[in-house]
Each structure stands twice: as C-alpha cells, then as structure tokens.
Design brief:
Elements: E1 17-20, E2 33-40, E3 46-48, H1 52-59, H2 63-69, E4 79-86, E5 89-96, H3 102-115, E6 121-124, H4 134-145, E7 163-166, H5 176-197, H6 205-219, E8 222-226, H7 228-233, H8 237-243, E9 251-257, E10 268-273, E11 275-279, H9 288-291, H10 299-310, E12 319-329, E13 341-343, E14 349-351, H11 359-374, E15 378-383, H12 387-393, E16 398-402, H13 405-418, E17 422-424, E18 442-443, H14 450-459, E19 467-471, E20 477-478, E21 488-489, H15 494-502
Parallel strand pairs: 1-7, 2-5, 2-6, 6-7, 10-12, 10-15, 11-12, 14-18, 15-19, 16-17
Antiparallel strand pairs: 2-3, 4-5, 8-9, 9-12, 13-14, 16-19, 20-21
Helix pairs in contact: 3-4, 4-5, 5-10, 5-15, 6-10, 8-11, 10-15, 13-15
Bound molecules: ligand BES and zinc ion (2 copies).
Length: 511
Amino acid sequence: MATTTPAALPAQVSPPEFALSEHAPHEIGGVECWAFPVLPGEDGAVVLGPGADEAGGTLGLDLLEVLESARATGRTGELTVVPVAAGDVRLVLLVGLGDQSVTDFRRAGATLARAVKDRASVATSICAIAPDGALEAFVVGAMLGSFGFHWRSEGPAEQPVRQVVVAGVQDADSRRPELERALALGGAGWRSRMLATVPSNVKNPAWMAEQAVAVADAAGLEVTVWDEQRLAEDSFGGILAVGAASATPPRLVRLDYRPAKSSGKVPHVVLVGKGITFDTGGLDIKPAQGMSTMKRDMTGGAVVIATMAALAELDCPVRVTGLVPLAENAVGGNAMRPGDVIVHHGGRTSEVNNTDAEGRLVLADAMAYAVSELKPDVLVDVATLTGAMKVALGQRTGGFFANDDALAEAISEAGKTAGEPVWRMPLVADYEEKLASKVADADNAAGGAGAITAALFLQHFAGDVPWAHLDVASVGDSPEERYEWTTGPSGFGARLLLTWLAGPGSVAGLR
Ligand code: BES
Ligand code: ZN
Ligand code: ZN
C-alpha cells in the first residue's frame, strides 16, 4: 500500500549539563542564577541553607527577610524568585525542601529546573545538605523537569538551562560516580519520554526498530530485528495479526547486554515492552477521546529500549535481553476481526473477542519466545495494557503483578527509590475461568476486573519463570506539570527497571 514518507523530526533540546563544585554558589564566577534550599523551621519560621547568607551579603539583600515577605514556608516545590542585577547574577531562587527526603530533593531539582529554563547557568547549594541518594535524585529531577519536545517551524518554545553547577559538595571528585549514575538514570527517563512523545506519523514499527539499532550501536549491545517475513517464518502470530492492517508492517526487536566483568554464570533477565506505535483499537475502534493519547501505547517498548541503552553506563552486573514487539493496531481490509483465532509463537491460541485488547497479543508472542528460547531466570514485561488500571490506581502510581514474592518486593522497592512508585495487584486465580473461550485456549478480552484478567492472560506465557508484569497505562501520561513529570507522555518505568537491575545488591529478587 502506498504511504507517504514520514518527515524527519527537527533537532530536539538536550538535558542540561551538570558539574560538581566544592565552592559555594557566590564563589563560582559567571553564573546567571543562584539557588538555595529553604527548610521549614520552628514555629512557622524558615531556615536558609548553606551559602545563602554570604550570597545575600554580596548582593546587599537579607534573603531571610525576603522569604518572610513572601510568606515562605519551606514546603517542597515552593519557589521564591528574587530578580537581581549584580554582576552576572540575574536571579536568586529559594527552593523549598520540606522534610528533605530523597523525594523532596528530586522534586526540588525539578522545581528549580523549570524556574531556570532559557537561562545559561545556575549554581545551587541544595545538595550541600543531601543525605544518601539525594544528589542522584536532585539531578534526575532537574533533568526530567527540563524535558521538552517540539515540532515547531521556528525551534523549541523554551530551552533547558544549559548548565547546573551542583555546588557546596564536599570531596566533589569522589561524588563523580554518583553524578554519572544520576545522568544515566535521568537520561533513560528522558529517552523513554521522548520516544513516547514522538508523533505516530513518524513513529512506526520500522522507525522504532531503527531507534533500537542506534541505541545498540552506541551502547555496544547486540541487536536483532525481525521484519514481517521473518516474523512469519518464526510463527509470531500475535504480532502479525495486530500489525496486519497497518501500512507500516510490524517488527520484533531483540537487544542483548552482557556484563563486561562477569565471571561464570550470571542471572539472565528478559524484559519485554509493549510496542504499539498507535492504538486505534482496530475494528473495535476506540472513540476519539480514548484514541487521542494512543501514540504513547509503545511506552513499554520505549522503557525497554531506554533501559537497555543505560545498562553499560550503570555497570549492570546481570545479563539482560530486551524484547520489543512493535505493531500499529490499525483499521483496514486486512485487519484482524472479532472472532479470529491467533496462533502465538509456541502454539498457544487466543480468540480475539476485542481487537482493542491487542497489547496482550503481541506480548504473548514475545514472552513465549523468551521462555522457550532464552530460558531466563526472571521475566519482566512493561505495558500500557489496560484502562482498568487507570481507574484502579489513578495517574500517579503504576500497577504490577508478580508470581514471585521476592521479585515483587524488589520491584516495589526499586519503584519507591527511583520515584516511579508501583502498587502490587493480585493474580486472582478465581478469575481464571473468565478467560475461557469456546474455541481457543483463551479469550483475549475477558471481562470483569480488566487489569487482573489481562495479567492472568499473560501469566500463561510466563511458564514457571519468576515473572512480573508492570501495567503502566495509568502513569504513561501525566495530565499536568508536576515535579519531574511534564504534561503528556511520561516514559514511566525506565528508572524503576534500572534501579532494580543496577542498584546496590541488584540481584535482589533474582534467583
Ligand atoms: N492501549 C490500551 C490501554 C490504555 C487505555 C492505555 C488507556 C492507556 C490509557 C489497550 O490496548 C486497550 O485498549 N485495552 C482495553 C482492553 C479491553 C478491550 C479488554 C481496555 O483497557 O479498555
Ligand atoms: Zn487497545
Ligand atoms: Zn493498546
């Protein structure tokens, strides 16, 4: 079928650059903005963080009085902006740090980053009082709060601040690895958010596969791409059926990472990400409102690609394979129909009772391939799978299921640490009967508790492998600008997976 060649995306903005310094902000020459933390004190008073008094002295300003005038409380995300004109300095930003938890630092980073958009540089002493893990969180928050995507003829509407100097940190050289780790985590969040934001007139399955190949080349991963002929030869019936009506045929991508310093056998984790480059619903077409955000239905795939891209930077000690089944769920004469039966990779069959329940059909193929051909120690899939999850958990917490308690604990902890919280949902065995089909091994659209029955459908493809299923439909999109979340696709999940796979004691939950 004839199709127009997608236009190329214009150049996008880049995250800020970060530097560490032992000096206080006012001792660092040439910066445009200074930022200091504000902590809630006794009896409604506030306390200013390190370097603020000296900076105020240089500027001839009592910053504490300024905070009093502004009725500042020091709560997280509170921002007092003081325009100044003193040498190179144009703005002083006083940023609330609340209880000074790791989350507060992430949020302060994002708050600051938004306030210094289009500025050349900011030096901040916020991390001078950072507890363990908080410098990482601050940098990740500052990166993601700077995120932007544009397709404007005259360039982006705004630019992230070019440089952030993390000032007042003792023994700055020794903190360099922590900064590098933060840049890898934040960069993965940025990449998955960017991929999820790209419009689907560019982002078809082949385009996504090209992104994966570029990532593999840059990160030294092995990469394999199945085109539609190879998918047919290898019996990927689910991916082919879902992608059948699209003018841009489906693909399957496999990325392989092996740790550099591994000796002997290391655990093997397989990640599978739903890569629906646009979900119209198929013949069971979605109403306009439900379709409007469906360019991001490949968020799971983006999360897997972005995670794979960062494993080497984080020195991940386990072997990881990423699988991304890519298809556009379109409408057309070749579309799969309600009542069709699909034969998945490995032979299990599904009756298509709703063409809009397409994600599980492509995941099933990839999971079956993982279990039979890769024999992983752990299998994790990530997918914007069900609207039901959004109803259950709202848009600030993701949901997940697991057939293994240790794995569930590790996933849940990683989500908390990374700032991508997920709540465990039950694989209610009693609902299994809802999956019954009159003709096939399962119905793809069992009703009832939709997120649970979708997970039960997938569970059959995990075999005996410890498996977790992350349903990020709820959090794949942020309805508002909120701390590190920018309005629109979120790319939720890459920070969680990397924190799990490359964290200290990363083999938690892996046997
Ligand atoms: N991509 C959607 C799920 C979704 C909905 C993601 C809203 C993000 C926001 C998925 O393919 C879908 O349409 N699922 C159906 C399944 C149903 C037909 C069994 C759903 O959840 O309604
Ligand atoms: Zn759908
Ligand atoms: Zn979908």
